[in-house]
Each structure stands twice: as C-alpha cells, then as structure tokens.
Amino acid sequence: MNWYRIDLHIHTALSPCTSDEMSPVNIVKMAKLEGLSLIAITDHNASFNCVSAVKAGEQVGVTVLFGMEVQTKEEVHVLTLFEDAKHIHSWQEIVSSRLKRIPNNFRAFGQQLVFDPLGNIVLDYPWVLQQGLDYSLEELTRDCTALGGLVIPAHIDRPSFGLIGQLGFIPPNLACAGWEISSSGLDIATVPGTLICNSDAHDLTDLIRPHKYQTWLYGQTPSFSELVLGLANRCNRRVVIGKD
Amino acid sequence: MQLSEMERLLELSPIVKPVDQGNEVTGGYVSDLLSDVMGNACAGSVWITIQAHQNTVAVAVLAELAAIILSNGVMPDTHTIQKAEDKGIPIYSSPKSTFTLAGELFQAGVPSTKKQT
Question: Which CATH superfamily is domain A2-241 in?
C-alpha cells in the first residue's frame, strides 16, 4: 500500500474562463511534475477532452479518470467521475439531453476547445456548456450513482455554485461519494462523509498546491477502484487532506 | 428609459459606468439563477440580482442585457468589475431589495419582458 497524491477537479480549455494552455497533454505533464498520480478531467457539463487526457496520461504515467463537473437545476456544481469511456459516454448522452441549445458567444464565455492527445485543437464546441441542466441535484445524484459514477459536490463552501450557498444546507438524505471543499473552508465539520480538496485548476499553475490543501489516497494503486474504497474508508484504504 | 434616468430614479450607485448614459433600457428581468436569465431574459433588459461574480457578466453579455443592478447592497469583486469594464456591461449597486427595485422600475413604466418559448 502506498500514498498517492490526487486532484479530481481539473478543467481543460473546453471550459469557459480557462487558459488556452490547458490542453490534456499539458495538464498531464504538469500533473506529473507536481507529483500527482491520479487526476480527473472535469469540464462543465462536458467530457470531450477525457479520452485525449487518458491517452496522454498513459504516456507520462498519470492515471486520468473520466469526469465532468455538472451543474444542476439549482445551479449546484457537482463532480461526477467514471472508470471508463463507455460509462462517461452514456453519462454525457444523459447530460447533453438536459442542456439547452444556446449558441456560444465568444465574448461571453471564450472558446470551448476540444483537443487530440497531442495537444492539437480539433474543435471549438459551438453550444454554451456552462449552464444549469434540467436535472435536480437529487435526481442527478441518484442516476449518476446508478450508472456506476462517483458523485462529489464541488466547492460546497463557496458562495457561487456551491451546494451550501445555493441550497442553504446539505440535504439530509443526499448520498455522495465525497465532498469537495475549497481551500477557504477547511474547517467545515458538519459534512456527512469524506472531505477532499482539489485545485479546480483553470490554468497550469493552479495545479501547484500548498501541502495543507493537497489530497492523498492511501491504497494499492492510483485507480478508480481504489479511490472508491478510499472515499468509503473501507479495506484499510483512505483519502485525506494534508497528509502528515 | 435611459440608463441615466434609471440611475437617478432608483438612486443607484454606478459601479461600472455605461459607455453611453443614453442607452435605452427596454425591459426588466429578475432572477438569481443564471441559467434562467440565459434562457429567458430579453436583449436590452436590465437584470436585478444578488449574484455578483464573473459569470454574471458573461450571462449579461450572452443575453445582450442593458445593465446589471445588484440589490441588497451586494458588491462585485475586482475581477468581476474588470470583466464588466472589458465587456462594456454597466453594473449598479443599491441597498434596496430586489422587490423594491423591480417595483419602482415597473411603476415608472419599464415593462416586464420574457422570451417566448
């Protein structure tokens, strides 16, 4: 068993307000330099750069999970993570079916870039991605979990798009795999599960994190299945912020 | 109604001044859900909200809104102000509630507008 540094909330240039340097290949190389073993690509309501990131990650030795940061009807941001391309594809179909088709305006949200594994731009996605889905938090959590996904509400302590800010409190029966807090809210004591802290990176330097905000997985390999155990605190696996 | 008249009538504090004070406000929309504004607010409307972050400005650009009024004394951070200046979206702030601001505007003849779906 070993400790592996993880970061499960990273945006590529597919997301609005993200630096154009955030191609999958640049991200995995920077992750490698930063000592990260397991990362997730989580663009707003979209997974179109995941396969490229996984392939680029294999080249440098960083495990990449298939992820998405979805935005619920209540405008709560939620990380959803999957083990393989097949499942994220099914999840993407569901998410896309609940998005309004609004043409993207470059002036409002910038470009939404899709890359190949080498870092070449292959598409500027034409529809607005950052918008609330026609999907409630409760319904989305249930469906994503049923599909084998991990549901982790994002930056729950942040005033905009965080669960507590949008809903006032954590719904008592909401079953999530973990809970992400932003670096400003490390003292949250009332969260009903495992806390994690991610970079929510929008440019490459965001991946550099001070020790007290780093999240670590204790397990056999840096993989989806070990992460599942770690978040559930089972079989001697665990996930902690700021390992000693 | 012109922006200058709206500012005077509602006693607003301009945070990001309009490029042209004479720009017309053709309607009003009230919501704190950004997606709702994206889908329903009409171009040329003024938007009253307590949401004061960079996405608020992006939504105003996308929906081609005339201005944003932040109610309840909410103030934007410097990044949001910078973005609004760059994109030419006027932002005003007021200690009044959203209900009061919308009521005053409506009484002064600014119509409620919503996209036909």
Answer: Metal-dependent hydrolases (3.20.20.140)
